[in-house]
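REVIEWER CHECKLIST
Item 1: Sequence provided? yes
Item 2: Single chain? yes
Item 3: Sequence as submitted:
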Amino acid sequence: MLGVMTLAGAAGTTLLAGRHIGYALALSAGVTIYIAASDIIPEVNRDGRPALAWTVIGGLFLFACADWVLSSFGLG
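Item 4: Structure as written out by the authors:
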């Protein structure tokens, strides 16, 4: 059943990708960010060490820098 549903999902995505790809990407990015934040942030709060919090903040900063660099080349 999983294999059949995977193939059906791939076929459905192929048919809808041309018109709705922006919505699909926004939805998948939002889900990914939600899952990452809901899993990482409680771990940072539970640990209580500042090094882990600074690691998360550093990762956010590197993401923002990468986005800025890519957008300056017209890729973002």
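Item 5: Key structural point noted by reviewer: The longest helix spans residues 2-47.
Item 6: Recommendation: ____
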